[in-house]
Amino acid sequence: MLNRLFLLILILTPIQVSAATCGYASHYGVGDGFNGNMTANGERFNAYSRTVAHKWLPFGTKLKVTNQRNGASVIVRVNDRGPYAGGRILDLSYGAFNQIAPPSQGEVKICYSVI
Hints:
Blueprint: H1 2-12, E1 21-28, E2 51-53, E3 62-67, E4 73-80, E5 88-93, H2 94-100, E6 107-114
Parallel strand pairs: 1-5, 2-4
Antiparallel strand pairs: 1-6, 2-5, 3-4, 3-6
């Protein structure tokens, strides 16, 4: 009886799995001509906002991006496609990147999870 109750509780308890994906991220939007252009989802790109380009996540998906070196994190919204530079998994807007690392760094090792 106790085993059945435990099994029932286990089955009915919602489990949220949020695996992190890790790799390198860069930034775009300042000094490269992208600020003010249209993004893949049709909105005007604002380099100082907290947005991100991802290759396949649905537009509007929110991510928590964490710098693996210093632990700083930022919440961003997917509004564009990319990155197109090899070895990178995200292209953060200049404003989002600035929240986790100095933009002069160019790229940073990050982990992200969907929230």
